[in-house]
Write a sequence for this structure.
C-alpha cells in the first residue's frame, strides 16, 4: 500500500516496523496517517520518535496535504486535508487499535476496503491520464 523509507537509522525501528509493532497503531494506515499529520504539525503521537528520525523524508513533501496528495491518500482525509477519516472510532490513541468484536471488525474491514478501492480507482485514473 505504501512506500516507506527502508533504511534503518541508529539501529532503531524503521517507520514500517514501528507502525506494525506499536500497540496503539497495529499496522493501521489511518492511525499511521494521524501520526504523520501530527508530525507535520509538531505534535506528539505514538510514532513521534520514529517519524522524527525520518524528518528528511517527510520534509521532502513539505506538509501533510503534500504527503496526502503525493501518496494518493485523499480518500482517507477530509476535503480540506486537515483531518484523518478513521476506520474505527478514535479517541486520541486511547482506544484499542484492533477491533474487539465481530461487528467492529466488519465495520473496520468495510471502511478499509472502501479506502483501498477508492485509492485504486484514483491510481487507475492517474495512469490513464499520464503520457
Amino acid at each position: 500500500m505504501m512506500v516507506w523509507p527502508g533504511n534503518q537509522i541508529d539501529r532503531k525501528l524503521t517507520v514500517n516496523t514501528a507502525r506494525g509493532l506499536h500497540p496503539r497503531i497495529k499496522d493501521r494506515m489511518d492511525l499511521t496517517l494521524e501520526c504523520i499529520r501530527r508530525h507535520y504539525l509538531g505534535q506528539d503521537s505514538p510514532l513521534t520518535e520514529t517519524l522524527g528520525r525520518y524528518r528528511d523524508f517527510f520534509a521532502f513533501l513539505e506538509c501533510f496535504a503534500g504527503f496526502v496528495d503525493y501518496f494518493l491518500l485523499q480518500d482517507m482525509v477530509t476535503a480540506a486535508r486537515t483531518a484523518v477519516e478513521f476506520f474505527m472510532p478514535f479517541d486520541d490513541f486511547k482506544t484499542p487499535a484492533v477491533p474487539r468484536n465481530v461487528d467492529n471488525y466488519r465495520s473496520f474491514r468495510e471502511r478499509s476496503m472502501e479506502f483501498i478501492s477508492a485509492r485504486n480507482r484514483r491510481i487507475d485514473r492517474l495512469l490513464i491520464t499520464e503520457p
The mean pLDDT is 93.
